[in-house]
Design a protein that fits this description.
This protein is α+β, with helices and mostly antiparallel strands. The protein contains twelve helices and six strands. The protein has two domains: 130 residues, no CATH class; 119 residues, RRM (RNA recognition motif) domain (Alpha-Beta Plaits). A hairpin with a 2-residue loop joins strand 4 and strand 5. It comes from Actinidia chinensis var. chinensis (Chinese soft-hair kiwi). This is RNA-binding protein Musashi Rbp6 like.
Length: 300
């Protein structure tokens, strides 16, 4: 038997033993996902609660995980501890960072004046878009490695579920419009066959978390396609928040799809809670009345 003394350095022997032990250790996919449970839960918030794009959300997660490997500690844990509307703000800043990596690498630093205050507030070290511009190649390579080594293994199943859910919602909406083509937008006068009150939903917002008309339109267009005919926000003074709105859809099928058998549906639009129910008018206006009113916002 060969003696240990034949090794010139016992540290070499220890290293070899460590490599052999590591090579014999097999981590199952389930164990890998369990290890990244916090990352998975944050990804679910991005895709399910905030309805962000599944592919983009994976890149966001990769960026945050790469920052953790680059001397910025506990990024995912810090982000996960925040309210969802702040998580959404951080995700928007992460997208700005990712876009910075794909812009002209010779862009003068003076032109990169977009700040990322939410991200900076979480970090122990200084960080800005200048950081990503100056470390562009390192960041691109590092984020790509995280996607391949971590995200592809820990998040792919969740990403596929989110994509399938989004596609199913769009497909169901398409089927609904095909079943009753008389309500399709291209048919002039089709909306007149169903009174606007019967294809209107009443929307309420949380005080202190304002939701804009464009946010509402983008949310429903992203999920259900071109389904919103017009939007009526509560009229308020400048600087005040609208607490409710009415949405008129092209087809009453949209209401059934949104409510899905319940009386009130809850959504999260950019991290802000929105409640929706079928609109119940106090009285029926005459056909000649202007149903949209002065605050109506047509969806083009």
């Amino acid at each position: 038997m060969q003696k240990l003394s034949t090794f010139s350095d016992t540290s070499v022997f220890k290293t070899m033993c460590g490599v052999m032990a590591a090579s014999s250790l097999i981590i199952t996919p389930e164990e890998f996902k369990l290890f990244h449970d916090m990352d998975r839960r944050l990804y679910i918030i991005l895709t399910n609660d905030l309805w962000r794009d599944p592919l983009e959300s994976m890149r966001i997660m990769a960026l945050w995980l790469w920052l953790e490997r680059s001397s910025f500690s506990h990024v995912v844990k810090k982000v996960s501890s925040l309210p969802q509307f702040l998580i959404n703000e951080l995700a928007d800043e992460a997208v700005a960072c990712l876009n910075c990596l794909t812009t002209n690498p010779f862009l003068p630093l003076s032109e990169l004046n977009y700040d990322i205050p939410m991200t900076q507030s979480l970090m122990d070290n200084e960080i800005s878009l200048h950081y990503f511009h100056q470390n562009r190649l390192t960041a691109i390579q590092g984020i790509a490695k995280v996607i391949n080594d971590v995200c592809a293994r820990a998040l792919t199943d969740l990403m596929q579920q989110a994509i399938e859910r989004n596609n199913a919602a769009r497909t169901q909406m398409l089927i609904s419009t095909l079943v009753q083509p008389s309500f399709d937008r291209p048919r002039i006068g089709a909306q007149d066959q169903v009174h606007p009150d019967d294809r209107t939903m009443f929307v309420t917002f949380s005080k202190g978390y304002p939701v804009g008309a464009r946010e509402i339109q983008d949310f429903f267009t992203r999920i259900y396609g071109d389904c919103v005919e017009s939007l009526h926000m509560q009229e308020v003074l400048p600087g005040e928040q609208s607490l409710f709105a009415r949405i008129v859809f092209y087809s009453p099928n949209s209401i059934d799809l949104i409510l899905n058998g319940v009386g009130k549906a809850k959504f999260t639009i950019n991290g802000k809670h929105v409640w929706m129910r079928k609109f119940v008018p106090k009285r029926r206006s005459s056909p000649q009345a202007d149903m949209l009113g002065a605050s109506a916002l047509p969806m083009l």
